[in-house]
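Question (not urgent): is this output format expected?
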Amino acid sequence: MTESDFAFLRGLIKSRSGLDLGPEKRYLAESRLGPLSRASGLPTLDGLVQRLRAGRDEALARAVIDAMATHETLFFRDKAPFETLRTTILPTLAGSRPPGRPLRIWSAAASTGQEAYSVAMVVKDMADVLAGRPVEILATDLSSEAIERARIGIYTQFEIQRGLPIRSLLLHFTQCDGGWEILPELRRAVDFRVVNLLDDIAALGSFDLILCRNLLIYLDAPTKKKLLAKLSRALAPDGFLALGAAETTIGLSRALGPHPDAPGFLTHTAAESDVPLGSELATVAARGGSGRRPRAS
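Got this back:
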């Protein structure tokens, strides 16, 4: 693949998905797109890029984004967030919401569904705490292929062994020809949709808990800021937000900060507004150099 072709692919992928491929990821593009090129009847990557440049093959462009997206996921990933969900988040939300009001949970960048189904298992296990309160779980991903796999709910033995406790396997799955199939009750508990987080997500509504884990690490700083602003607007005033263990809002958002009662989770900060961070100097100058940050109204 030529430098020019790789530069075109980087631009296409970033504009469509926000994923920021550094120059060192050229090998990754070649290894992931080679099979797609051959499956599309294009013997070389040059031919694939030429067709993309023509701009007339939307299906191929979507397939390229699917191929380049990282779908690394597993059941109950990192364990600690799910323990906090059991011990703190669900009891807190159940106790602070009006009777009968549904709790709304969003698994963003849900990949093939393991995170969303893990949440659904916790919710089912905590039926006594929830006392009949409905829980709506939305799971979204950019990849239509990943979402279709999630809807089917069949996982290989290898996927099952990655993080799923044996008790959960016995309670929530049945063995099938393709591996293990999640019970229909849990499949119905999750609404899987194809959603591009670069688009307007306001129509999705407000959520009591948002999980958007291990996506920011693939984005550049401006895209991270925009996404965090969107998540902040989608989060209930006293809601909980989970990012990946290696991700942070420091330098990216003043609207979100550590939750005082849920280690590892974020919530709205009481004192700061989500103004563009780059405007701080202009704000200081306008205030006569006071250095005080603007307060939320």
